[in-house]
Amino acid sequence: MRLNAGLIFMSDTRTNAGVDNISRFRKMFTWEEPGERVITVLTAGNLATSQAVISLLDERTKAPKERRPSLLEAPTMFQVANIIGDTLKEVIKTQKMTGPESEADYGATMIVGGQITGIEPRLFMVYPEGNFIEASEETPFFQIGETKYGRPILLRAYDPDMSFEEAVKLLYVSFDSTLKANLSVGMPLDLQVVETGTMQVGHRRRVEDDDPYFQTVSSSWGDALKLAFKSLPDFTFGPDDQA
Amino acid sequence: MRLNAGLIFMSDTRTNAGVDNISRFRKMFTWEEPGERVITVLTAGNLATSQAVISLLDERTKAPKERRPSLLEAPTMFQVANIIGDTLKEVIKTQKMTGPESEADYGATMIVGGQITGIEPRLFMVYPEGNFIEASEETPFFQIGETKYGRPILLRAYDPDMSFEEAVKLLYVSFDSTLKANLSVGMPLDLQVVETGTMQVGHRRRVEDDDPYFQTVSSSWGDALKLAFKSLPDFTFGPDDQA
Lengths: 243, 243
Fold this sequence. Notes:
Two copies of one chain form a homodimer.
Chain A: E1 2-3, E2 6-11, E3 14-16, E4 22-24, E5 28-33, E6 37-45, H1 47-62, H2 77-98, E7 108-116, E8 122-126, E9 132-134, H3 151-157, H4 164-181, E10 189-195, E11 204-207, H5 212-231
Antiparallel strand pairs in A: 1-2, 2-10, 3-4, 5-6, 6-7, 7-8, 8-9, 10-11
Helix pairs in contact in A: 1-2, 3-4, 4-5
């Protein structure tokens, strides 16, 4: 999510190959040269694809002289998104071309955000095809994976002027709606803040099941929604409503 | 939706074959013998399939002596659901077997609810395979079609003791969340109430774009949600949240 104050990211940690086969994997990855650049990537979709992409990107940053292009050398966030898109596309293509015939969907989608010194923070969504779009004032946040349950509250309550603290509250509410409806999304959550101009990760937190503030939000949101619902004007049937 | 007071149904009217090809069709159908039985069917999925099923069911009710089984002669709502499931399954099978090879999805899903004199009101969801499930105290409502955006508020605010008027408000809020997020769902809406014991349609309404109460709900819900959101306790980062 893009705010005037900077970028904020949240991801869950559940992956599944059917409801009888769930695991916990991190879906948030960060590369930083503190003070110079910070790059965060969130992943959704095929886990093998996501991990291959992240590993390839990571290897290149560790021996950048021999292995290019490196995220740590790209001059702009646009180039970073380009590198990630190319890597993602290549991994998917290789899986499809070299593996046995399979019904498996090797696709993955990624959110890429960060800042490189001298340029504004930027936020992209990268498609399995390797191309990408950028967040804007009209569309200031991206969701990947199971997006629908949590979307209405984002559409209604997002404000670019909100503080990181308010944004955490909003993301908790949004994730809580999804967690309550879909088993493919599960705790714990990963949270990360990148304040504009710092070129490094600010706050970060792993939000466990027993996180007291998350529990408070989750339980109070039900009551708050019910109150909001009751506050709406009452409906009455009119004479035209008869059968 | 199943309430202690009876059944309430809502459907939209948009169908599409791509965003450049949208139309308006009714998706709510009713058969009644006032005082003896009332049966309401909601449809989602392939429009040709839905219309064929509804037409077949309807024809049989008009010449029940010659054409069986008829919805108006079935002794229980369970048998009604059975007839609808069988008809649906047959229509889909015929389309698939007799048509040219096609990527088209001929599937459709239906919600069937109503009451036959002497028996409690019952509510079913019928799958394209022809089998079905029944609503219960644990799962007192069904959604078909684009279900996700509107689900969180239903999960949070539903109460079996609510009045029909409160249920209308809830369904408006739920549909409004979906309408705001997905072009495949569109106004006007159809609304219908079946009060337990009456064996006939009570209130019914076509809710147009300019319906004043719907507009009020739609605009106040955004503000109510924002207030609810603000009412949640504030988040603060702790010392453990540093990078």
